[in-house]
Amino acid sequence: MKNTVTLIATAAMGLEAVVANEVRQLGYKDATVENGKVIFEADHDAIARCNLWLRTADRVKLLIGEFEARTYDELFEGTKALPWEQYIPEDGKFPVTGKSHKSTLYSVPDCQSIVKKAIVEKLKQKYGIANWLEESGSEHKIEAALLKDKVTITLDTSGAGLHKRGYRVGQGDAPLKETLAAALVQLTNWRVDEPFFDLFCGSGTIPIEAALIGQNIAPGFNRSFSAEEWTFINSSIWDKALEEAEDLANYDQPLAIYGSDLDPKMINIARDNAMEAGLADLVQWKQMNAADFHSKEDVGYIVSNPPYGERIGDKKEVEAIYQKLGAVLKDYPAWSKYILTANENFEALFGQKASKKRKLFNAFIKTDYYQYFGKKSK
Ligand SMILES: C[S@@+](CC[C@H](N)C(=O)[O-])C[C@H]1O[C@@H](n2cnc3c(N)ncnc32)[C@H](O)[C@@H]1O
Question: How many angstroms separate the CA atoms of 331 and 346, rounded?
Answer without folding.
Answer: 18
